[in-house]
């Protein structure tokens, strides 16, 4: 039952994000448009490249979707609504997200096309840099909770949410989540104006539908992770716990879409340089500050 509820939540969340994304792009609010677009893609011919690596080409969209769902499996919506509340849940999430890189490299290599391959290799550098900004803020939240159990991390924020306790960690995690989901302005793997779609370019039909669904589910998963680690998870007044989890997750996801809508794409050299020169030192500083607060403040 829990698995079905979580999967249904991910699908509904992906649909809502697709509606909002279309509204931001076209200015028209059409709730049925994502469903019609999905059905349209399902009815189209799935075209193959001339000399693809079929294993990589076919597996990449499915792997990305599986990674997004596995990440969501360890994130609690309520104290009792979580598929697997692992003792090392925070560590598991970080490990699972590493396979986003694998799926994007496969999507770039599989079609045997120049633009797709460039997009995949772009994401390689992007993830190596920004994965550090995922694990370091998570480390700081685990330090405060004295646990890697995600439900305990949520409970540790009962008096003060981590967005207030460690705002620097929240900002870094938010930026890294956008980079990991390759949302604009971090959409270097797809870059429609430069790479004609990049890793998406050679996918059509059912494969493209799965790939786009996986991207939306990944955004929901990373938004839920932001809610769990920094926004107090299910905690909040008046409304039931599940409602607070959904409201916060949707708010984070929409904010990521809005940021990407209003900011231009960043050059890959600047994107990586800012992370290595500023992001990682700031993440280390955040860990130091949290450690001092734990020692000084009872």
Automatic annotation (TrEMBL):
Keyword Zinc part of the UniProt annotation: no
UniProt topology in membrane: Multi-pass membrane protein
Compartment(s) where it occurs, according to its Swiss-Prot or TrEMBL record: Cell membrane; Membrane
Major location (coarse): membrane
NAD in keyword set: yes
Swiss-Prot/TrEMBL keywords: Membrane, NAD, Transmembrane, Transmembrane helix
Signal peptide residues on this chain, from the entry's feature table: none
Membrane spanning stretches: 55-77, 89-109, 121-143, 163-182, 216-236, 242-263, 275-297
Stated family: Belongs to the complex I subunit 1 family.
PANTHER family hit by this protein: NADH DEHYDROGENASE SUBUNIT 1, NADH-UBIQUINONE OXIDOREDUCTASE CHAIN 1
Name the record gives this protein: Respiratory-chain NADH dehydrogenase subunit 1
Lineage, opening ranks: Bacteria, Pseudomonadati, Pseudomonadota, Gammaproteobacteria, Oceanospirillales
């Amino acid at each position: 039952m829990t698995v079905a509820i979580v999967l249904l939540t991910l699908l509904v969340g992906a649909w809502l994000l697709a509606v909002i994304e279309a509204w931001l792009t076209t200015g028209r609010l059409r709730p049925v448009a994502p469903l019609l677009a999905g059905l349209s893609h399902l009815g189209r011919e799935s075209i193959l490249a001339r000399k693809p690596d079929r294993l990589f080409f076919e597996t990449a969209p499915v792997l990305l979707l599986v990674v997004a769902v596995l990440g969501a499996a360890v994130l609690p919506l309520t104290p009792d609504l979580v598929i697997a509340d692992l003792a090392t849940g925070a560590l598991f999430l970080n490990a699972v997200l590493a396979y986003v890189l694998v799926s994007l490299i496969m999507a770039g290599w599989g079609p045997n096309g120049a633009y797709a391959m460039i997009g995949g290799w772009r994401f390689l550098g992007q993830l190596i840099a920004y994965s550090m900004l995922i694990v370091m803020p998570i480390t700081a939240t685990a330090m405060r909770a004295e646990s890697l159990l995600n439900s305990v991390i949520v409970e540790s924020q009962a008096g003060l949410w981590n967005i207030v306790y460690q705002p620097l960690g929240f900002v870094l995690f938010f930026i890294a989540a956008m980079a990991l989901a390759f949302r604009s302005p971090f959409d270097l793997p797809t870059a429609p104006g430069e790479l004609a779609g990049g890793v998406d370019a050679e996918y059509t039909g059912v494969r493209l539908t799965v790939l786009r669904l996986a991207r939306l589910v990944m955004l929901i998963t990373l938004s839920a992770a932001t809610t769990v680690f920094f926004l107090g998870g299910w905690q909040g007044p008046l409304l039931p716990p599940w409602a607070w989890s959904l409201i916060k997750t949707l708010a984070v996801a929409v904010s990521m879409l809005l940021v990407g809508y209003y900011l231009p794409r960043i050059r890959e050299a600047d994107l990586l340089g800012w992370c290595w020169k500023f992001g990682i030192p700031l993440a280390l500083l955040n860990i130091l500050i949290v450690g001092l607060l734990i020692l000084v403040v009872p």
